[in-house]
Amino acid sequence: MSPTIDRITLHHYRLPLDPPFHASWDPQPRRSFGATIVRVTAGDYEGVGAGDAMLGFAGHEHLFLGQDPFAIERHVTLLDNLQFHYGRMWPLEIALWDLMGQISGQPLWKLLGGSSNRVRVYASTGERLPAAQRAATARTLRDMGFPALKLRFHAADPRQDIAIAAAVRAAVGPDMHILIDANQGWRMPWDASAPWDLKTASWVADALAELDVFWLEEPLHRHDYVNLAALRRRSRVRIAGGEGNRDFAELHQYLAHGSLDVYQPDVAWSTGILRGCQLARAVQAASALYSPHTWGDGLVLLANLHVSAALSQAPFIEFPFDPPAWTPQRRDFILPQPLLPEPDGFVTLPHAPGLGVTLDWQALAPLQT
């Protein structure tokens, strides 16, 4: 009989960023990077997860205390209830899966039914750079072994971004895949600009098809299921999205309408692990790709890579990497060691139980807020 949950605590950390990170989707320079870690214990075992700050969770710990960590359907139902009222609660579910892995002695990728712990990854860049500079970084990423890289669009005139994509294609040649994130699916709280309409998205997709772009991500608002489906039908480029849809029913609307070729819900940001696995199976049964968004801290990345290793049939999975602005050391500051790709473009996940990492709480103490 497994031990029951006896404690849940939240820990908030912040890493100063000097120089700041100029994320393409945010006009305000990022001078720090925050991470919230959820810590769940059951007897001698501990699980951790990370993601949103879970500011509305305080006072609801009693809903889980004394419960079996393996009663995951129950826990997910309650977390979905809490999310409706307070926002994303999936970091706790990640911690529960890590805890289940610790108790059972199995790595998460194996606990979820996977047979391999290796995941092929693409380099996901975060800054918009001048064409010549981005072309140079693209060549470096190609030479490091990445099979693909993602570029960010956010210019008022899409032709400026298309010119950058053209420079990258010329730099890397025909064998490296290029992915484009249009960032039209959601906005930062202070960004009141309107998303593209269908004709703009169609025009951009046509231009990118000439550059042999593999997918176009979030070309329309995240709830525009009908027009996304229309765009997918006419486009020669795969249409990707779903990273920011919080409700599981919203993601099924994409399936019902045939809106996407590539589904990208983040297990820390959108679905949790249980629902993420369910969606991955449904998506792949519909001959689409499951390649989740992973942009976040090191535990967020690890959780998504474990799920991908277990279930995804996609050719590659997101790996946030855009040095010198966004390095594994910055991204994974809460981990004892940064997660690094191998020369063949793969990441190998540990055989250790759960997520496979043991956090150094003492080393993190100076960054606690």
What is the gist of this entry?
The chain has 369 residues and is α/β, with parallel strands linked by helices. The chain contains 12 helices and 12 strands.
Key phrases:
single chain; 369 residues; TIM Barrel; globular; Enolase-like, domain 1; 12 strands; 9-stranded mixed β-sheet; 2 domains; 37% helix; 12 helices; 3-stranded antiparallel β-sheet; alpha/beta
Q: What would you say this structure looks like, in words?
A:
The protein has helices spanning 72-86, 90-104, 108-111, 131-143, 158-172, 198-209, 225-234, 248-257, 267-285, 298-311, 328-331, 361-364, and strands at residues 7-21, 30-42, 45-51, 118-124, 148-152, 177-181, 215-217, 238-241, 262-263, 289-290, 317-320, 346-348. It has two domains: 7-106 and 359-367, 2-Layer Sandwich (Enolase-like, domain 1); 111-348, TIM Barrel (Alpha-Beta Barrel). It contains twelve helices and twelve strands. It is globular. With 369 residues, the chain is α/β, with parallel strands linked by helices. Helices cover 37% and strands 19% of the residues.
- Choose one word for the global shape: globular
Largest sheet: 9 strands, mixed
- The helicity comes to 25-40%
What is the domain total for the residues?
Answer: 2
Work out the helix count. Answer: 12
Oligomer: single chain
List the helices and strands and how they pair.
Layout: E1 7-21, E2 30-42, E3 45-51, H1 72-86, H2 90-104, H3 108-111, E4 118-124, H4 131-143, E5 148-152, H5 158-172, E6 177-181, H6 198-209, E7 215-217, H7 225-234, E8 238-241, H8 248-257, E9 262-263, H9 267-285, E10 289-290, H10 298-311, E11 317-320, H11 328-331, E12 346-348, H12 361-364
Parallel strand pairs: 4-5, 4-11, 5-6, 6-7, 7-8, 8-9, 9-10
Antiparallel strand pairs: 1-2, 2-3, 4-12
Helix pairs in contact: 1-2, 2-9, 4-5, 8-9, 9-10
